[in-house]
Amino acid sequence: MLDPDLDRALYRQLADLLRADIRSGVYGPGTPIPSEAKLIASHGIGRNTVRLAMEVLRDEGLVVTRQGRGTFVLSPDAMKSRQLPVR
């Protein structure tokens, strides 16, 4: 549950929830994260909040977004390859 009274931004709270769901297996490799519309409706938040949360998860290498298709959890191997330092 997101709490607007916390000092932590709502998009970070949403990213925390989704990250925990990914790590616990609620969303496995290759499975889609709920759509923006579903996250907006289920959490009572704005579109920009959802987009910022997805950006955090993409930057962490946990998900990939395919335009027109959705946001999908990456496999552990893909996560590792995205976290390797660039030479």
Automatic annotation (TrEMBL):
GO terms for molecular function: DNA binding; DNA-binding transcription factor activity. GO terms for biological process: negative regulation of DNA-templated transcription. InterPro entries: Bact_HTH_transcr_reg (IPR050679), Tscrpt_reg_HTH_GntR (IPR000524), WH-like_DNA-bd_sf (IPR036388), WH_DNA-bd_sf (IPR036390). Keywords: DNA-binding, Transcription, Transcription regulation. SMART domains: HTH_GNTR. PROSITE patterns: HTH_GNTR. Residues 8-76 form the HTH gntR-type domain. It comes from the Bacteria. The keyword RNA-binding does not apply. This is Regulatory protein, gntR family.
